[in-house]
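Weekly sync notes, structure subgroup
Attendees: PM, AL, DS (notes)

Item 1: joint prediction request from the bench team. They want all two components modeled as one assembly rather than separately. Inputs as received:
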Amino acid sequence: MIKKFIHQFASPKTFISKVDTYYNFIFYSALLIYVLSIIWGILFTPEDFVQGNSFRIIYLHVPASFLSQSLYLAMGICSITFLIWRVKLAAYLIVAIAPIGAMATFIALISGSIWGIPTWGTWWQWDARITSTLILFIMYLGLISLHSSFSNYEKADKLLSWLVIVGAINIPIIKKSVDWWSTLHQSASITLTDKPTIDPVMLYPLIGTVIGFFGLIICLVLLSSKNQILIREKNKSWVKDYV
Amino acid sequence: MFNFAFNSFNEAIYMNGHGVFVWSVLIIVILTLYIFFISYIFKIKKIKKKLNESN
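Output from the run, pasted for the record:
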C-alpha cells in the first residue's frame, strides 16, 4: 500500500506539475515572511545584555544552521526510499538537495565565523560543533563531486544513497556536540522538550526567519529537482511535450 | 515589541561597532540566495531551450 502510494505521487511528471502549480505561492509567502522577520529581528528587537548588537546575527545563522542539518536528514529519508522502494524521484531529490544543503552549511559556517569575532574574539575554533559542521559541509561537497564523477546514473544513485545513510551519523553528533563536549559554541536555546531560554521578544522573529528561510530553501530544492528531472528524463516523451 | 531598537538611522547602521558584522552576514546571505535562485532559473531555461531545439 505504501509502495503504491509513493509510486502514485512520486512520478517525475506529477512532481513537476505540482512544482509549477505551487512554486509561486511558496516563494512569495516565504520571501515575505523572511524579509519581515529579518527586519523585525535586526531593527526592532532590543540589544542583548551580554552580546550587544552582534546577537542579531542569530536571525541569519540559526535558520541556515537548522536547515543544513534538516536537508541532510531529508537526503537520508530519500536514500532509504530509493533503496527500499526504488523510487526514481527520491534518487533525483538526493542529487538536487545536496548543493542546497552545501549552501545552507556554507552560510551557517560563514555567519558563525563572523559572529565569533565580536563574541568569542576569534573567527574559528576547532571545537566539536564547528568542526562537525565543517565535516558536514565537506560531506555535501564530496557527495556532489562523487555523483558528478559517474557516467552511469544508476550506479551513482545507489552509491550516493548508501553514503548518505552512512554519513547521517554526523547529524546527531552535530546536534549533541554542545552537550557531549566542552565547546565554545553555546548550547541550544530552543529544544523540543524544554522551555526556550531565549526571551519571546527575540524568539518570535527567530521563528519567523526559520519559517521564511525554510520556505525559500524548499523553493530552491524544487527548482533544483526540476532541473535534475529535466536532465535525467530528457529522452522521455512527456518531457518533450512539457518543454 | 515593535519599538525601533535604535535612536537614529546611523546608530542602526553602526550598532555600537557590531554593524559591520551583522550587515556583512546579511549581505552574504542575500547574495548567496540570489546567486542560487538565478543559477537554477537559468539552468532550467537553458535545458528547456536545448530540449526544444532537439525536438
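Discussion: The mean pLDDT of chain A is 92.
Action: AL to compare against the crosslinking data before next sync.
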